[in-house]
From TrEMBL:
Similarity-based family: Belongs to the glycosyl hydrolase 65 family.
Enzyme class: hydrolase
GO CC field: cytosol
UniProt keyword terms in alphabetical order: Glycosidase, Hydrolase
Gene that specifies this protein: Pgghg
Function of the molecule: Catalyzes the hydrolysis of glucose from the disaccharide unit linked to hydroxylysine residues of collagen and collagen-like proteins.
Catalytic activity: (5R)-5-O-[alpha-D-glucosyl-(1->2)-beta-D-galactosyl]-5-hydroxy-L-lysyl-[collagen] + H2O = (5R)-5-O-(beta-D-galactosyl)-5-hydroxy-L-lysyl-[collagen] + D-glucose
Residues covered by the Glycoside hydrolase family 65 central catalytic domain: 284-490
Keyword Hydrolase among record annotations: yes
GO molecular function: protein-glucosylgalactosylhydroxylysine glucosidase activity
Assigned EC number: 3.2.1.107
Protein name: Protein-glucosylgalactosylhydroxylysine glucosidase
Amino acid sequence: MADGEGDPGVFTATALPGDPRLLPTLTSAFLGTRVFRDILHAAGVYSGAAGDTHRADVPSPLGLRMAAPGTHSPAESFTLNTWTGTFSHTIQSPGYTATHQLYAHHSLVHLMASSITIRRLDGSTHPITVQLQSLFVPQSQDLDLRPGPDFQGAHYIYGQTLVPEVEGGPRPTVHMLWTPIPQSLTLGGEERERCWEFLTAVAGSGEEAKRSYSAGLSLVAAGSLHRSHVRAWAALRRGCSVELDGPLALRQALHGCLYYLLSAVPPRDSPGVRFHGISPGGLSNGTRGEDYWGHVFWDQDTWMFPNILLLYPEAARAILQYRIRTLEGARRNAREQGYEGAKFPWESAATGREVCPEEIYGDQEIHVTGDVLLAFEQYYCTTQDQKLFREDGGWELVEAVAQYWCSRMVWSEEEQLYHIRGVMPPDEYHSQVDNSAYTNAVARRSLNFATGLARDLLLLVPEEWEDRARKIKVPFDEERKYHPEYDGYTPGEPVKQADVVLLGFPLMHPMSAEVRRNDLEMYEPVTDPAGPAMTWSMFAVGWLELKELQRAWSQLEKCFSNITEPFKVWVENSDGSGAVNFLTGMGGFLQVILFGFTGFRITRSGLLFNPAFPNNITKLKVSSVSYLGNKLEVTITREEIRMEVTETSQDPPASPLEAVLESGQRFPLWEGQSVSFPTAPGWIQRSPS
């Protein structure tokens, strides 16, 4: 299958994958669907109680498909263009082409649109007809839908979800307007070309649905609906541009990951749009029984968030605000288990209450609470946005997590250390273990961050936070010089996925290079080769840290068995099982590029760098690294690092920066001035001047 004639951001095929789950997704911050599918989903709209909560299926008028009557096997092509955020289907028949374009409008997030263009290629004058096949029925298994009056030529339905997430809780309402779809379209004998536009607007209120539909109609009248989407999407892609010189398959995977992950975030300048988190399969998936039913896991905070933070901190803030909004639900979770503070759910939907259908995970996989706080810490270190913590609820969340960890620990007289007992680590092959190395290390990290932030905000620091952070046990084998996964772990025991290796990154738990290597050596051969896709990326980051470039590449290569053709849709497990459009795996893959190849590490004092490339990669350019209100263009080759501040925020004013090498050399980073120096480890920090 040709791939856009070498363009790594355009994926073209002459046939569709046999498995419809592998069709590309079209998503905005509020709406998502798979191409040719008869349902869509709206953000935050779940139906079903507790463990049965799932994304409510909204009937989709967009799932139509063109057919050329009377033409035997016409030439067809299907293209996902990640530069324009548009999917297209083209039929090439003798004498004409018909092109169907489909997209989720990036800036009008309540609007999805499709257009069909018939273009005559010869001098004929007979009418040309294209049939439209649609499975659309204005009914849903999850919504009590009823018709409303037509609006500006559009049909209208609205209704509430059938079952609230918690008893007595809200049942979200969905309002939908759509352009009626005929069974066929005909280009008249005297016409050379014609375009028909079809709009679907979905919102939580009739007013918003009508406003979005009207805005779409106005742009259609001006001939600029698709152009306005492409402009907004291209601006986002430019602002989050990552380019590398290396194998085509790697560049295609990079652009595919950026497309699917950036589709999930809110558009710039959209403070009014409430964000509802990112689930492992994204907004396009998550109907009952599919892709973890659209629930939000640690996948968002640990695997996707760091990439979004580095490229687009405003969207990272929206993700954190989702967690702040669900804090009350997290407090309820802690209380119900007999603890203080807030316990974030293993699976979260609209309320922050635990919606995991299997109790063992919700009860035991408590590391998610620390994972949530690690995202807050990374955001704070990168932005110094005190408003989020002082005024917008961030501090209350940080404090509640610290309280939870303190109440979850017990003192061991024998070891004179605090223990956390009866947990499931990230490695889900083990449960009811004591002192999971990862869980305890992330709890320590939570308490240290809470302590440091309290001091920055001039708040009183409870003594027990520092005491417990100092005295919590993180298992370590002095003889073998490695971290056992939990108390009683025997070397060689199979492990499901990345667990202890996460101590090195992203936790940056203090350890020598020897211990880091031993952890990688110990767990790499016993990690299940059929485990989830994000695992190998963390081994790759570890080997890059140790400058073991070939070993890093061999781990990164394992990710490619999770990428399906032709549209670069990821599957969770290499046998095709698990979540599809697996954004978690994409997030891990992007972290190899954005944090592994660059060596970027977010710390309180600076943004560290220490580049390392596998042999088949010669250059990496990240056009918009965000740090302390500055946008930096960073270009790295084996010989040279080049940095330039391309933009600075005015409100609040950006901190002036400098790059400092380990050798002691300093390079002031002024806006519009490029500086370069030999490739070497160092850090970017606030300039003392």
